[in-house]
């Protein structure tokens, strides 16, 4: 009798399948700040923050309890992240020079053990792109990405490179718009002979879109040259012939001025005027802490620039703004 009651039952394949689904190991939560963070971005519209790590992970944080994780196929450091504001999409640039597009997507509901489970929102990679090399030239150096600029329209990504070229990617398709590529040679041909001197312009150090005129961007080269470029018209509107090694650029909110920061610890204010092809001299140049200072790596905003200088703009700058 006891032997009959406790004998082993036959294997139920459906039961075993459900057990595997219910008891399978899966990572459900990570605690604490990401290990070895290397890049940061913020979406002011959706109020999301993204953090990239040296191991190739991307973490997106929202309200308390809202957290998404994405992993690149290769464990390569994330060096830049840029949100497409309000779209639930972001771009990541890896140390291997590849650009990746991520998207917050909703999964479909599924049946588990006869019960219907609601779909979840996940961070999913939907595309990637790597710049092609130029024939006969070491592509690892000339097309290595130095700076990314997402235009306000969110349909075009501007890419500055080590070789001085500027490339444009269509979004969200991540397709290269070859006809809009701006090689350094084209810029060099527009320079005055005395400024050219057979020297390279160096890598692209900064890309900044005009705050009032969409599709016009400042392109800053390491040597000190700054170009105001019309993307749609494919033409140079103005040249700013700086002579000090460039670190960064930032626009004044009206678009009448911009500031360039330099490797000697100084900064210069430049006036943007229509019809003035070449600008040889800035409105003002200042080294706030004397000679032999550390480089001013970046001005995050015009307000930051104003905080770094005196409480008031110089008389020359005020004069330009009042025009």
From TrEMBL:
<feature type="repeat" description="WD">
    <location>
        <begin position="71"/>
        <end position="112"/>
    </location>
</feature>
<dbReference type="GO" id="GO:0005096">
    <property type="term" value="F:GTPase activator activity"/>
</dbReference>
<dbReference type="GO" id="GO:0032878">
    <property type="term" value="P:regulation of establishment or maintenance of cell polarity"/>
</dbReference>
<keyword id="KW-0677">Repeat</keyword>
<dbReference type="GO" id="GO:0006887">
    <property type="term" value="P:exocytosis"/>
</dbReference>
<protein>
    <submittedName>
        <fullName>LLGL scribble cell polarity complex component 1</fullName>
    </submittedName>
</protein>
<dbReference type="GO" id="GO:0030866">
    <property type="term" value="P:cortical actin cytoskeleton organization"/>
</dbReference>
<dbReference type="InterPro" id="IPR019775">
    <property type="entry name" value="WD40_repeat_CS"/>
</dbReference>
<keyword id="KW-0853">WD repeat</keyword>
<dbReference type="GO" id="GO:0005886">
    <property type="term" value="C:plasma membrane"/>
</dbReference>
<comment type="similarity">
    <text>Belongs to the WD repeat L(2)GL family.</text>
</comment>
<dbReference type="GO" id="GO:0006893">
    <property type="term" value="P:Golgi to plasma membrane transport"/>
</dbReference>
<dbReference type="GO" id="GO:0045159">
    <property type="term" value="F:myosin II binding"/>
</dbReference>
<dbReference type="GO" id="GO:0051294">
    <property type="term" value="P:establishment of spindle orientation"/>
</dbReference>
<dbReference type="GO" id="GO:0008593">
    <property type="term" value="P:regulation of Notch signaling pathway"/>
</dbReference>
<dbReference type="InterPro" id="IPR036322">
    <property type="entry name" value="WD40_repeat_dom_sf"/>
</dbReference>
<dbReference type="InterPro" id="IPR001680">
    <property type="entry name" value="WD40_rpt"/>
</dbReference>
<dbReference type="InterPro" id="IPR015943">
    <property type="entry name" value="WD40/YVTN_repeat-like_dom_sf"/>
</dbReference>
<dbReference type="GO" id="GO:0030864">
    <property type="term" value="C:cortical actin cytoskeleton"/>
</dbReference>
<keyword id="KW-0268">Exocytosis</keyword>
